[in-house]
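Holo prediction — zinc ion.
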Amino acid sequence: MHRRQTVLGIESSCDDTGAAVVVHAPGSAPQILSNIVAAQTELHAAFGGVVPEIAARAHAEKLDLAVEDALTAAGITLTDLDAIAVTAGPGLIGGVLSGVMLAKGLAVATGKPLIGVNHLAGHALTPRLTDGLAFPYLMLLVSGGHCQFLRVDGADAFTRLGGTIDDAPGEAFDKTAKLLGLPQPGGPAVQAEAEAGDPARFAFPRPLLDRPGCDLSFSGLKTALMRARDAVVADKGGLTRQDRADLCAGFQAAVADVLTEKSRRALARCPDITGFAVAGGVAANTVLRGQLMALAGDLPFVAPPLALCTDNAAMIAGLGYRLWESGLRHDLSLDAYPMTEP
Ligand code: KG4
Ligand code: ZN
């Protein structure tokens, strides 16, 4: 590819409707011209989690508007595009289908190439988009839906070193917030509350540290938190502000400790890497970030800006371009898929 290439990205695999325009010019870093995200947080708030049917309907309603906004913000029209990249999975199938159908329609209407992208691979390649991190690197993906260690050797070369065997850590933060009467999304609320807390007051478990390898588990922590809360309530008839802060601090410390120890093991398995990167909403947690940065030591530690750590379409456009450059093309038989790892 010898000239400037402009790629539209479309993302609709969970509860964020995204459209973005990314430009790649030879010899310079990729440029994100626009990155529109329409979050559905309010639509799902009353249900304490993402409702797939509601998400799918909202994506169907919002996707074309998001694309229009992304093109307008980038100052271009459909005819200026060189390719269209879309999340083909994994994710909630109704939403993924909405995105794939729109991308196919746009590809047919404009005659532009269509590239289906794996959502997790999009997250995993983000450090290349934002920081130009060279292969190979280790990626810890921690969000409300994902938790895994990936060794990244190329745009379509990943090795999964381990991951959660039950809940994702963001899910555990969200449930903790719910159990303590804090607002959703739970992660930022628990972090804020934990600032005034004593992480040592409650002895929360550090699941799976006794087992070799990089797998993680968070469902037991959630149960431990519920038991600790119930014990305080049974003893005193309710929770004080300090009790809540101590519970949050203890829970957060347990999550950060297990992620740090498993990261240490994953890093030990990759002696030749150029850096250690994190992505996903939970990577916003300052205690976790601090511990992981300290762990990385002299190895470059890359934490992309939050808007590119959480679900977004710029990462889909960025990866779509790389795959297109290496010859990948899809046609109208491109399938949306609910599961599978990169
Ligand atoms: O990546 P993301 O936006 O969506 C997916 O799950 O794909 O991640 C959202 C998750 C939520 O569970 C939220 O509670 C968590 O990231 N989160 C945090 C923090 N900020 C967001 N968890 C811990 N500490 C935070 N500061
Ligand atoms: Zn995601």
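READOUT: The chain has two domains: 5-132+308-325, 137-299.
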